[in-house]
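Retry 2 of 3 after timeout on previous attempt. Resubmitting structure tokens to design endpoint.
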């Protein structure tokens, strides 16, 4: 329910079109006291009047005027104010440090062909990789978020691998963790001043999703098992997976990157506010 005395954290914010052709904002807020989530609507007039920086993920805001709709279980916001502005993500030094950690790890690969392939794809679009988010709204949706998510996946993989009884090649597993989201450096665009994320229209002209991009990249170079792990990493076809893990008789290696990716997306540094305590 709506509490005008409470402070709220912005969880995510998107803008879409109504049937009438006007803009409508959808925003999820979390009450910082009781952690309850409030679903909010903002009409075009309100969007035009409020400063863009108010909607940044991780911001702490206070609702000034609004009404609660019992039928639709949402809040129509007319005005709000900023209490504390969130970070946009990792700073330049932090991004460079994480990038170098990723490069150093890949350089330890014994499979020379695989090592060179992964390094090439990390280095050729370095500047885009340094700022890329890992998602628009769901997790690691901040500057440098893709690097954080990728390294988290590697950390989980290194812990889990000894328990896999050699059912997946170790370096192929690590490569799949590194490349499963590599297409996101093209799929998303991020404003490095405000932290706002949107989909790239140019990417949509050529590709269906980042999964398709990563799958194609690896398959074209003959890394078929890596390609298959990437194709399955979203788990279900209605979540964007090219291979649905509900299919029967899949080999075990298909499942592992999906579970590793899910661990990072749910338990990692998922929100930009996590960086205040974990990156200092």
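Retry 2 succeeded. Sequence:
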């Amino acid at each position: 329910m709506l509490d005008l005395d409470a402070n709220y954290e912005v969880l995510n914010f998107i803008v879409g079109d109504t049937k009438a052709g006007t803009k409508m904002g959808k925003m999820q807020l979390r009450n910082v006291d009781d952690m309850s989530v409030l679903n909010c609507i903002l009409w075009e007039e309100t969007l035009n009047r409020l400063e863009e920086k108010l909607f940044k993920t991780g911001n702490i805001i206070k609702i000034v005027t609004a009404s609660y709709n019992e039928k639709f279980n949402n809040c129509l916001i007319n005005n709000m104010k900023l209490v504390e502005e969130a970070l946009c993500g990792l700073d330049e030094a932090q991004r460079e440090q994480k990038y170098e950690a990723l490069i150093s790890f890949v350089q330890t690969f014994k499979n020379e062909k695989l090592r060179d392939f992964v390094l090439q794809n990390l280095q050729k679009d370095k500047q885009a990789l340094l700022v890329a988010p890992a998602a628009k709204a769901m997790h690691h949706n901040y500057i440098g978020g893709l690097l954080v998510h990728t390294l988290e996946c590697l950390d989980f993989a290194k812990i889990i691998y000894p328990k896999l009884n050699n059912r997946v090649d170790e370096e192929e597993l690590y490569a799949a963790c590194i490349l499963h989201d590599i297409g996101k450096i093209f799929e998303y665009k991020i404003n490095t001043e405000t932290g706002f994320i949107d989909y790239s229209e140019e990417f949509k002209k050529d590709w269906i999703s980042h999964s398709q991009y990563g799958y194609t990249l690896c398959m074209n170079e003959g890394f078929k098992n890596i390609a298959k792990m990437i194709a399955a990493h979203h788990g279900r076809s209605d979540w964007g997976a090219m291979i649905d893990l509900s299919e029967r008789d899949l080999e075990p290696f298909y499942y592992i990157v999906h579970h590793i990716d899910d661990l990072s997306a749910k338990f990692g540094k998922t929100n930009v506010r996590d960086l205040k305590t974990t990156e200092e």
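Attempt log closed. The beta strands are 8-17, 23-31, 37-43, 60-69, 74-84, 188-190, 197-199.
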